[in-house]
Structures are given as structure tokens and as C-alpha cells.
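agent> step 3/5: call structure_predict on target 'Iron chelate uptake ABC transporter family permease subunit' (Pseudokineococcus marinus).
agent> reason: downstream docking stage needs a structural representation; sequence fetched in step 2, passing through unchanged.
tool.input:
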Amino acid sequence: MSASAPSSARPGAARGPQGRAGAPTSGGRSRATPGAVPTASGRRRGRPVLVAAVLLALAALVAAALLSLAVGSRGISPGVVVEALLAPDRSSTDHLVVLDLRLPRTVVGLVAGTALGLAGAVMQGLTRNPLADPGLLGVNAGAATAVVLAISVLGVTSPGGYVWFALAGAAAAAVVVHLVAATGREGATPVKLTLAGAAVSALLLSLTTGVLVTDSATFDQFRFWQVGSLVGRDLSAVAAVLPLVAAGALLALLLAPALDALQLGDDVARGLGQRTGAVRALGALAAVLLCGGATALAGPIAFVGLAVPHLVRALTGPAHRWLLPLSALVAPTLLLLADVLGRVVARPGEVQVGVVAALLGAPVLVALVRRRRGSLEL
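tool.output (status=ok):
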């Protein structure tokens, strides 16, 4: 009797080697084509399809930006918008509306949306939690507490003045969350990060609420920032936040291969040469820079960072080299379209973009849950 078992009886032979492009066939070989990326449903998307998706998302972003510049209480034709951008005439009322009112608003939407989309994708990959959003590390709660204290104690009144306080509060909260989660032998695991973030957020929320219920003047100012808005922010506020958002975006894109390795589990990631602790620290830093900058600029806007990565992942699959760039394009498109919709549904008034984004993002997330039979997977 032979000592060796047939190849078909060996452990793992029925499944075959796992390739990066997808599941193997019954014969043990993967028939995935080079460059193909598996989607959440198991279907492979070839590189040309994904490149076409990126180009289509870029075209949609340009169209959304033009709509943001053209639509409002004063309708302006796309031709006049382009003329105002390329050959501005300060004597033209339409040009002044485009340049002084709508251009800063559109730039804020582009920067904040890009930051939120990238931050959401990074946080979901970093924690392997499909419900992770950019505020998981206490960033939103820290920014809100700092803004409330700036209004109540220091008398800051302008949205441009909130920026630095919101950034400082977001960074401080994230540091506290990471220090709490890093205690113990295992270090900052995904579960500990989630629990520490929830605990610190609850603590900061109670502090914020305590100040607001005792200071009506602070509450009147804070509520306009809290709902999330692109109005009232000028380009100087964008200039203050843009370097931080750019640094966070670059760091997030560079971490794409490491985030892919983390999806296989910490043990496998270490076997592939990844330093999981360093990856999580750098990923948390990228998320803080991105989400802190977006929150400081536009206030805490919900559902964009949560829903957009799931929407994109349905096309690209789990590969972060495609997920991150597409999220960075789709999120600002959604945010700008939400802002445009808020301008036209309640004329002559407006609905704040944070409200409209939640109304648009929630049905998308529910549809994805129903499509995947009640569960969201990474």
C-alpha cells in the first residue's frame, strides 16, 4: 500500500491555489485573466472595465462641478460658467456669482467629498468593519467638542475660524482613541479601535451636550456647523485644510497594498512581510488627516464616507488600488449633487447638504444590504 495519498485527497487540493484575481476552478487552477479584479459577487472585472469606470466617474465629477456652478436661485448657463472661469469679467453679475459665491462652495465640496470617500474606504479596510465610517476614531466628536469650546469660551463666530479648532480637536480625539486601543498585549486591534472610538465619542458627546444645553448662544451658532454645509466657507479655509487633506490622500493611496494584505488577517499579513501595527498607525493618521480636514471644512457630513466605499466595492471588489481612487471620485460627485439638489427642492430657501447627503446615502446603503441578503462584506 502506497504511503502517499492521491493528489485529489490531499488537503486543499480540491480548492486549488488561491490567486489574487479570484477563486480557482474545480481543476485546481485559477482561470482569472491577468489584471482581473474579483467583485463582491465573485465576478471578475478586467482592467479595461475598471479604467473605463474611472474615466466615467471623472466625467461625472466634472459634470457635477459644472452643475454646482450653474444651478441656484440665479440660473446661469454652462457657457457663461465656462466663460467666467476662463475669461472673468468683474463687471458681469453672472461672473461675480460664479466666482465669488459658487466657486468657493464647489471647491469646498470637492475637497470635503474626496476626503470623506477616501477616509471611509481606509477605515473599512483598516478595521475590517463594513460599518466603519470616517468618524469611527472619534474624529467627528473631537472636532465638535473643540468647535463648541471655541464658540463658548473664545467667542469664535466665523466658519473660517472653526477650522483650526476642529482640526486640533479631531487630532486629539484620534490620539486618545489610539492610545486607549493600544494598551494590552495585542495592541490596537480592529475590535479595540472600534470600542475605544465608541467610548471616547460618547464621552465627548456628553461634554458637548452639557455645554450646549447651558449656553443657548453657543447652540444657535453650533447647530449651523453641526448639520454639515458648504455655505459660508471661503477659499482661505480651503487653503488651510488642503495640505492636510492632500497628505492624507497620498498616504492612503500608498497604503493600498498593505490594506489588501490586512483583509487576509493579521497572521497572513505578517507572513507577507507587513508590519500590521505600523500599517494601522499610518492608516489611522491618513484617516485623521482626511476626516479631520473634511469635518473642519464642512462640518460632520454623514453617510458619504460610509455608503460610497460600499457602492464602489460592488464594482471593483476588495482591491484597494481601484477602490480608493474610485471612492475619491464618486464621493465628491455625490456631495456636489446633494448640494445642488438642496438648492432647488426648497426654493427660495435651501436644504443643507448634510441633510440631503443622508437622504441620498441611506437608500443606497439599504439597497446594498438587501442585495447581499442582509449583510455587508468587505
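agent> step 4/5: record observation. The beta strands are 37-38, 44-45.
agent> proceeding.
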